[in-house]
Write a structure and sequence with these properties.
12% strand, 197 residues, mainly beta
Length: 197
């Protein structure tokens, strides 16, 4: 791919619904002013370049319905300004990198419809600014890590249709800021921990 001029002042880049886009050029990491990056509906995109971690001004990353995206690069943990990470409908996403715990200002994490996601990394407990965690329809998710109890800013936890989830750990009772807990159609959930009360 021919190198394009670098738009040093570019703050927003939208490639939404570019359904034939399979990869991004490595020089994307040179967009130093970029605050919003929209890749929603890039259904052929299989991976993100490691250089994405160089986008230190990025606040919003939209990857919803990138259906073939199987993993995120470890370098995503270097997006220190990231506030919103949308992975809604990433059907092939199997895991999150441990480095996601380095996103210290992240407020919203949307994993709605990540059907292949089986577990969350323990490092997710380091997201101390996280207010909203959406795990709706993560039908392969079997359990939550104990560290989830460390999310002291969490206000909304959505677990509807997590049909493989069998239990909630006692640590969930440590979520003192929690206002909304949704467990609709968690068909295998057998009991609630006493810490909820």
């Amino acid at each position: 791919m021919k190198k394009l001029p670098i738009f040093i002042n570019l703050q927003e880049l939208s490639l939404s619904e570019c359904s034939s886009l399979q990869e991004l050029p490595t020089f994307i990491g040179q967009l130093n002013a970029l605050q919003e990056f929209n890749l929603f509906g890039c259904s052929s995109l299989k991976e993100l370049p490691t250089s994405i971690g160089q986008l230190h001004a990025l606040q919003n990353l939209h990857l919803g319905w990138c259906e073939r995206l199987q993993e995120l690069p470890t370098s995503i943990g270097q997006l220190y300004a990231l506030q919103n990470l949308d992975l809604n409908g990433c059907l092939s996403l199997q895991e999150l990198p441990t480095s996601i715990g380095q996103l210290y200002v992240l407020q919203n994490l949307d994993l709605n419809g990540c059907l292949s996601l089986q577990e969350l990394p323990t490092s997710i407990g380091q997201l101390h600014a996280l207010q909203n965690l959406d795990l709706y329809d993560c039908s392969s998710l079997q359990e939550l890590p104990t560290s989830i109890g460390q999310l002291h800013a969490l206000q909304n936890l959505h677990l509807n249709d997590c049909s493989s989830l069998q239990e909630l750990l006692t640590s969930i009772g440590q979520l003192h800021a929690l206002q909304n807990l949704h467990l609709v159609r968690c068909l295998n959930l057998q009991e609630l921990p006493t810490s909820v009360g």
